[in-house]
Amino acid sequence: MNSAGVDSPLLRCSDLSKYYGRQPGCIDVSFELWPGEVLAIVGESGSGKTTLLNCLSANLEPTSGTVEYAMRDGTMPNLFDLGEAERRFLMRTDWGFVHQNPADGLRMAVSAGANVGERLMAVGERHYGKIRHSASDWLERVEIETGRIDDYPRTFSGGMRQRLQIACNLISAPRLVFMDEPTGGLDVSVQARILDLLRGLVSDLGLSVIVVTHDLAVARLLSHRMMVMKDGRVIESGLTDQVLDDPQEAYSQLLVSSILQV
Amino acid sequence: MITEPVLRLSDVSKSFTMHLRGGISLPVFEDVAFAVHAGECVVLTGPSGIGKSSILKMIYGNYRTQKGNIVVKSQLTETDIVSASAREIMTLRRNTIGYISQFLRVIPRISALDIVAGAAVEQGRDKSLAQAAAASVLSRLNVPEKLWHLPPATFSGGEQQRVNIARGFVAEYPILLLDEPTASLDAANRAVVVELIEEKKAAGCAIVGIFHDADVRDEVADRTIDVTEYSVSAAA
Fold first, then answer.
1. Which of A107, A147, B25, B206 has most Cβ atoms within 10 angstroms of its Cβ?
2. What is the mean pLDDT of residues A49-60?
3. A149 and A29, same domain (yes or no)
4. Which residues of chain B have a CB within 8 Å of the CB of A256?
């Protein structure tokens, strides 16, 4: 699936700024995201990338600027003009959010199957057999043995928890998924497996993704386009391979030259 | 030739600014200008480091262009790569411009056959037709059939290279950029690549290539362009 023939953006962010008191989080950010595109936001800690992600996903109200989103009915309202209930409905159905720490996206005290099935219930599915069947199907797609469906996530390894969180997000067939350092804090081999899995799912499902990472290798593998942030501002953006192979700004050059060669 | 060129470079200049080296600017070449027509193969020549690969990367939108225009004609539209949006370049890369280097960027866990067929599938070709075409090119390039269903991560360098070449030739791009595709291939496979290039030319594909092997260059080139003529350091 690709974005050919789709002639309007899925999300449009215009002049977005967020200040914490007088301290800027992100400043004057504008961009468009089109269906099927994967956008990476990179930069070091404190550059404002997480603040931006939280504003885009309506978890944080910006100080100024708008985030317009193409609803399934064809309208494109500013998220912050929507009511709280509408926003919550979007978050639980049309969007996914993969947190760095799976515990932030999972309920550790209910079974893996119940975690995965929860979103289906949120969109109105009530048939227990169907929910369980979808849940087991999704566990398989993220390479978790279906025999673990009744186990609690706290009995899972870090990598399994992350894959479970991914399944929880994708089961409701979202159009847009936000990811905050989806492979942060995992062993390299576990990380590679998650990246493979994400890459495959994103292209099979034609998902649009906004992924925040400080790891340029993750950005290279997953994203089509990239924005580099520093001190709250986007200082360079373009095709991922272009920004990584021929960075223009001093800070982007520093980031790229800091990648460890193995 | 009466037809319009499908690719036209005018006044194209490239320099690298090294911010980490005190902001020094390294000019590479200036005012490169040439046009390529459908069915024609133009070969860039000149010593290593003169900027041949940079020109291909600029046409592909991989490197930025500081000055000039790189206009690509596809069906009814004309796009200047220099000012195009990331999204426009992504569309051109899917449908119009192919780029083959000697290095395969391995995608973990995807079979060689699917990697090769993938380029054609992205262009909208039916999956089974794409796989049949992929199988045919892989066998012409002597990639053993027992490897087709394995991910190429564990293949030898030469096998990976041939998978990469196959991918570029299976898709139907009106413009093909070849960055030393025959480097380190044996004579038999080099001959196959020459055949594939001739077939693309016959089908109307415009090709810009770099070939260090003089025999290959002489066989496929309709014209050569010596990049040294545009070199900034050589002129100084």
1. B206
2. 96
3. no
4. none
